[in-house]
Amino acid sequence: MYTKKIYFSGGNVRELQEIFRDLPGVVSVLIGKLSARNVHSYINPEMQTIEEVPSVEIEFNPKKMDLSMLMDVLFNVLNPYADKTLGVYYNSGEDEPQVELHLNFIANRGREPVVSKACLTINDPNIDKVVRKCFVSVGRLINFTVAPEAEQNFLRKHPEIKTEIDLTKLKTSLKF
């Protein structure tokens, strides 16, 4: 079976693991730390390298789950306009255009669309009016170090722990 991987950071990684693990098409979700290069955010586009960011690695079957659907779930759980630790990292060059397109849409949400000479409605990145600022970081993965087994599936092993997100309600509201 052909699978792909994507890496998300932000919020509580234990909760992220629990949210993504039961989605259709998701093969595995691991907690760990990542390093990435050519990282930029939509607030500060300067390229940089980051080290040791707590994150989740999501392995998924692209025939059953789309990368944009995974990012939609992430942005429904974590606010891309408020969470300054939020990040999307990829290890395959073929994922970069889809990640960038999705995040450009998120960054330009709320702005007035521009109409080109060809009567196409587009989001112009050069518009001065900024309604909200998107804090999501994006970059290419250098390394992902898997956390020890004691950290994996922590919320399943300890169901008594309270989470900020009502995981049961979230899972029943997701429609795929």
Structure, described:
The protein is α+β, with helices and mostly antiparallel strands and 176 residues long. The protein has a single domain (4-94, 134-173), classed as 2-Layer Sandwich (Peptide Methionine Sulfoxide Reductase, Chain A), CATH 3.30.1060. The protein is 25% helix and 30% strand. The chain is built from five helices and seven strands. β5 (114-115) and β6 form a beta hairpin. The mean pLDDT is 86.
Features:
5 helices; alpha+beta; 176 residues; Peptide Methionine Sulfoxide Reductase, Chain A; 5-stranded mixed barrel; two-stranded antiparallel ribbon
Present the secondary structure layout.
Blueprint: E1 4-9, H1 13-21, E2 26-41, E3 48-60, H2 67-77, E4 87-90, H3 96-108, E5 114-115, E6 121-122, E7 137-146, H4 154-157, H5 167-173
Parallel strand pairs: 4-7
Antiparallel strand pairs: 1-3, 1-4, 2-3, 2-7, 5-6
Brief overview:
The protein is α+β, with helices and mostly antiparallel strands and about 180 residues long. It is built from five helices and seven strands, in the order βαββαβαβββαα. The protein has one domain: Peptide Methionine Sulfoxide Reductase, Chain A (2-Layer Sandwich).
